[in-house]
Amino acid sequence: GREGVEALVDGLCERAAQFAERIQHEGFTVLNEVAFNQVLVVCEAPEETAATLSALQSSGECWCGAGKWRDTPLIRVSICSWVTDETDIERTVAAFVEARKAAKPA
Predict the structure, then answer these.
(1) Are 20 and 3 in contact (CB under 8 A)?
(2) 64: CB partners within 8 A, 6+ apart
């Protein structure tokens, strides 16, 4: 019913806000005001963002899409499952950090 839908939407919003806070703490930039379940993430340079997304998708830990904001390549994160919890967010942030490391030249 109504309360269930409200709880679902609130949970998605909370997880997206948690992800945005944690990913920024790790040195990524969030481009949007997180108002629902979408988080737009970039690295320091467009090339690093693209390489990080590629490494992230290859890792299989999570899947994120590519996008652009004012001609800037970005990683689009959608928190869209009711079962996503705080542990999942932490695992995803860790996957982003590892993907960024893998994307940087040695």
Answers:
(1) no
(2) 41, 53, 56, 57, 75, 76, 77, 78
Read off the pTM.
0.91
Give the long-range contacts of residues 28-37, CB within 8 A, separation 24 or more. Answer: 28/96, 28/100, 31/69, 31/72, 31/74, 32/69, 36/9, 36/12, 37/12, 37/13, 37/78, 37/79, 37/80
In sequence order, what DSSP letters do the residues of 38-95 get, joined into one string? EEEEE-SSHHHHHHHHHHHHHH-S---EEEEETTEEEEEEE---TT--HHHHHHHHHH
pLDDT tens over the chain, length 106 residues: 888 788 878 888 999 999 999 999 999 999 999 999 999 999 999 999 999 999 999 998 888 999 998 889 999 999 998 889 999 999 999 999 999 999 877 6
